[in-house]
Task: inverse folding
């Protein structure tokens, strides 16, 4: 247990120093010395700092400090591999031809003696790591860049705002590589007032400016600028100013106008609905009237048919009664004739028994 604790403590100490060395029984060892740094100790928590090559020339002089000199001490003849992660680049020599676009991320050097030398630079303020390794041992050193002078400025602004209100312009100031630079921009405004820019508490190079908008509607122009830097046309053309427009509206008046238009539209819609309802009511009333007239016609037709049927029935009954009377009268007359004939026949037959006549039934 005690030996395990000692190993753990040794690992923690090595990591705090930015160096983790693995040494096998063969006794291969490596150590790295770094020069021309601006500050730092090379650990993950305190990386070496070095100026970014904002002039597009990489130099390892103490005054420029744009490259770190890495000197690895090893057993003579052992090849050393330097590996960069992040934005760091490695070159084998520093001269006038080395620019920000030079370098590789891995380089193996076989020294004639016991030291292998390379030069490391970065274009970013984010931390990078350089690992120097030989067979059986390695060590890691950390570095990060120091931003160059302000080279570019960009401004963003909301597209619209309200009269007599406020808005916020956001400005970013960066070096030639896009690293944030703590250089406050100069603000300008047309038809508005731009306040002194305030640096963001967390993001280097980010500034905000409060914009006081006018009392009347219209367009507002806001600008931000920086002092023109030394141009480096081999990398990029500097953008020393930027601007944006903001449309200022009278939102209360616009809202009132919109509400009035909406009310008018609702009124027109209600009137149209009322007209349709009135039209439907007229149609419904006409339909009721038509149905009533149809019902009356049907009723009148039924009444007329009933009267006609009664008249026909009465006529038929009268005719039948008349026929019955005629028949009765005829029957009575015939019966009287038969009676008279039969009376005469009886008298005849009584007087003339041999010449009797038949009576009528």
Result:
């Amino acid at each position: 247990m005690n030996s395990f604790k000692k190993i753990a403590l040794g690992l923690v100490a090595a990591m705090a120093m930015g160096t983790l060395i693995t040494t096998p029984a063969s006794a291969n060892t490596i150590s790295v010395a770094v020069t021309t740094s601006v500050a730092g100790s090379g650990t993950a928590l305190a990386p070496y700092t070095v100026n970014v090559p904002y002039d597009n020339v990489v130099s390892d002089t103490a005054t420029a400090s744009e490259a770190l000199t890495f000197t690895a001490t090893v057993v003579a003849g052992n090849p050393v591999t330097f590996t960069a992660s992040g934005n760091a680049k490695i070159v084998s020599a520093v001269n006038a031809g080395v620019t920000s676009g030079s370098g590789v991320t891995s380089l193996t050097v076989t020294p004639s003696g016991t030291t292998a030398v390379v030069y490391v630079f970065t274009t970013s303020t984010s931390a990078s790591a350089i690992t120097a390794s030989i067979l059986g041992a390695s060590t890691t050193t950390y570095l990060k860049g120091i931003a160059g002078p302000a080279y570019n400025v960009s401004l963003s602004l909301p597209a619209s705002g309200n009269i007599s209100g406020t808005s916020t312009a956001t400005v970013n100031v960066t070096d030639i590589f896009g690293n944030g630079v703590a250089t406050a921009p100069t603000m300008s405004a047309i038809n508005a007032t731009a306040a002194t820019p305030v640096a963001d508490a967390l993001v280097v190079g980010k500034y905000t400016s409060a914009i006081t908008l006018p009392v009347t509607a219209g367009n507002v122009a806001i600008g931000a600028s920086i002092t023109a830097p030394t141009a480096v046309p081999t990398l990029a053309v500097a953008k020393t100013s930027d601007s944006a427009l903001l449309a200022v509206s009278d939102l209360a008046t616009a809202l009132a106008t919109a509400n009035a238009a909406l009310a008018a539209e609702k009124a027109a819609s209600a009137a149209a609905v009322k007209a349709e309802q009135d039209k439907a009511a007229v149609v419904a009333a006409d339909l009721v009237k038509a149905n009533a007239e149809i019902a009356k016609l049907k009723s009148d037709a039924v009444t007329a048919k009933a009267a006609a049927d009664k008249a026909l029935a009465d006529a038929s009954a009268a005719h039948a009664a008349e026929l019955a009377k005629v028949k009765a009268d005829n029957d009575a007359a015939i019966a009287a004739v038969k009676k008279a004939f039969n009376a005469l026949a009886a008298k005849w037959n009584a007087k003339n028994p041999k010449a009797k006549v038949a009576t009528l039934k």
